[in-house]
Specification:
The complex is a heterodimer of chains A (271) and B (258). Chain A is of the alpha+beta class and 271 residues long. In chain A, a hairpin with a 2-residue loop joins β10 and β11. In chain A, α2 packs across α3. In chain A, the strands form 3 sheets. In chain A, strands 2, 3, 4, 5, 6 and 7 form a 6-stranded mixed beta sheet that branches. Chain A has a 4-stranded antiparallel beta sheet with strand order 11-10-12-13. In chain A, 27% of the residues lie in helices and 34% in strands. Chain B is an alpha+beta fold and 258 residues long. In chain B, 31% of the residues lie in helices and 29% in strands. In chain B, the strands form 2 sheets. Chain B has a 5-stranded mixed beta sheet with strand order 1-2-3-5-4. In chain B, strands 7-6-8-9 form a 4-stranded antiparallel beta sheet. In chain B, α1 packs across α2 and α2 runs parallel beside α4. Chain B starts with 31 loop residues before the first strand and ends with a helix. The chains are: A alpha+beta (271), B alpha+beta (258). Chains A and B meet through β1, α2, β13 and α5 of A and β4, α1, β9 and α4 of B. β13 of chain A pairs antiparallel with β9 of chain B, so a sheet runs across the interface.
Chain lengths: 271, 258
């Protein structure tokens, strides 16, 4: 069951300050409303994974590992590989993250990342069929939060994309209906590079890339995913407030522009 | 190597005359039936039939909250569960909550919360239970429409009713209120919830592919759909509360005649 989250009363003073700043177009860490924090992308950090990446947005740190294994396809897509995304809110990443089965926030996060990749057809799943209807490659994308300082959605998706872009797949052949894995590797076939851009609405101001203090102060959040062709491929609103229709239309416009910058960063880091 | 070939149902989603596979025009909603106050135990309830969707929503509260650590000192907490009945889909749905249901429960709660004056009932909980008995596309929107009516029926103070509607794209055409087949084989799905008088969008999700122009067109079509459905909600609410008072009045008048 989904329950209204708690807000700490100690933080209320800080929230008031952030809302006050927002009304003047200012932010608590000195950024302009449409600025991201510094984005740092490292790839190939886990040798045993098919692909991996760590993305830092400011102090936020997320590590993503990609493992590719043979498995069975879904009955409705017998000729296609399978993509699966899982998010772990490990307790080391934030004092409010607790042990136990995945909660709605981590389920929502993994589904947003999944939606961005799936709807833009980022991974070319049609090339991951081994024996049609029987055996395909399953791409496991595991999101591991390390340090939560806000905007986990963007950090996770950028890390997932960076990991996929540097993923290697073993070459193989099929002998007598058996899969034989070879030693040499090829890159994972990719079609698209979707970039989600997350906005927070604080007071009446929209800001990009909220840090954790701003996430506490925001009334609502909107993530807009943009694909290679500047089309919208995924969206998700979160939080207890709402947006005026005109705010959403301008957010889409901003996201289209901003996604180009960030896509360039990721493409350079994964080349 | 062989390839499995499956029929492509997307071919017939829209015909040469611009009509959809169920005979609707692109901007036409499915027929919607709303009924308020369908359960006796719940403090408020509502039922919606939208095409083949059949969904019932019940509201309890404001009531004491358990476990206690969920208390919010300056407002009521709102809890929401969206559940699909195992028999609601073509293939039986396993009764355990799926990740999809967890996410939908969350977005429905967040779509309704902006409309509830929850600060009137601190330290309590308002529970919203949604049972999707038959699902045929657009169930999160239909659930919001019913749940908002159920909140009103429970007498919970609301800023206004929340209305909801989805739009999407099939074969390049922007269409409103997708049913299952269009949702599955279409190219985009964009569900929206709106508080029309406050001009506030309280739910927006999207998957698929829409250019900026298509997005703007679809978005406005969804807002229009929400406004239409909002009128139906008003009527449904009036039907329940007006009818009861009307029948009482007519009884009284009959007795007077006697």
């Amino acid at each position: 069951m989904s329950t209204t989250p708690h807000s700490s009363e100690i933080l209320t003073l800080e929230c008031d300050h952030i809302i006050d700043l927002a009304s003047k177009g200012k932010r608590i860490d000195g950024r302009a409303p449409m600025d991201y924090r510094k984005i740092k992308i490292q790839t190939g950090i886990i040798e045993k994974a098919n692909g991996s990446a760590q993305v830092d947005i400011g102090q936020t740190k997320v590590i993503v590992g990609v493992k590719i294994e043979a498995g069975t396809p879904f009955p409705d897509t017998p000729n296609e590989g399978v993509q699966t995304v899982n998010a772990e809110f490990t307790p080391l990443a934030h004092p409010t993250f607790e042990l136990g089965p995945p909660q709605e926030n981590s389920i929502e996060l993994s589904r947003i990342v999944d939606r961005n990749l799936r709807e833009s057809k980022a991974i070319d799943l049609t090339k991951l069929s081994i024996i049609p209807g029987k055996k395909v490659f399953v791409v496991f994308i595991d999101l591991n939060m390390l340090d939560h300082y806000g905007n986990l959605i963007d950090a996770s998706t950028y890390a997932a994309l960076s990991a996929l872009l540097t993923s290697k797949l073993n070459k193989y052949e099929v002998k007598n209906d058996e899969l034989v894995i070879k030693d040499d590797q090829q890159p994972l076939p990719m079609n698209d590079y979707p970039i989600p851009i997350t906005f927070a609405k604080i007071g009446k101001t929209l800001m990009l890339d909220p840090n954790i203090q701003e996430e506490n102060a925001m009334s609502t959040r909107l993530t807009v995913g943009i694909d290679n062709e500047d089309c919208v491929c995924a969206m998700q609103k979160g939080g207890l407030g709402g947006f005026e229709p005109s705010e959403i239309e301008s957010a889409v416009e901003t996201a289209i522009q901003k996604s180009k910058e960030i896509r360039k960063l990721i493409m350079e880091a994964t080349r | 190597m062989y390839k499995l070939v499956k029929p492509d149902p997307s071919k017939n989603l829209i015909n040469d005359k611009g009509l959809r596979s169920d005979g609707r025009r692109p901007d036409e909603l499915r027929s919607i039936k709303l009924q308020v106050g369908v359960l006796d135990n719940a403090d408020g309830s509502a039922y919606i039939e939208q095409g083949k969707n059949k969904i019932i929503a019940g509201v309890y509260g404001p009531r004491e909250i358990h476990p206690k650590h969920l208390i919010i000192s300056d407002r009521a907490a709102i809890r929401c569960r969206y559940r699909m009945a195992p028999f609601s889909t073509d293939e039986r749905k396993h009764p355990a909550p799926s990740r999809r249901e967890v996410e939908i429960s969350k977005v429905i709660r967040e779509a309704l919360e902006p409309s509830v004056l929850s600060e009137y009932y601190p330290r309590t909980v308002i529970d919203i239970f949604i049972e999707a008995l038959q699902c045929d596309g657009g169930t999160r929107c239909a659930s919001i429409v019913a749940a908002s009516l159920a909140l009103a029926d429970a007498g919970i103070p609301l800023k206004e009713l929340v209305s909801s509607c989805s739009v999407g794209k099939v074969k390049g055409h922007v269409i409103v209120d997708l049913y299952d087949l269009e949702d599955k084989y279409g190219e985009a799905d964009l569900p929206i919830a709106l508080m029309p008088n406050h001009n506030l969008v309280t739910l927006i999700q999207m998957d698929g592919k829409l250019s900026k122009e298509e997005f703007d067109k679809a978005f406005n079509m969804a807002l229009e759909g929400c406004r239409k459905i909002r009128n139906l909600q008003n009527d449904a609410l009036k039907r329940k509360y007006k009818l009861e008072s009307d029948t009482e009045n007519s009884k009284d008048s009959k007795e007077e005649v006697k």
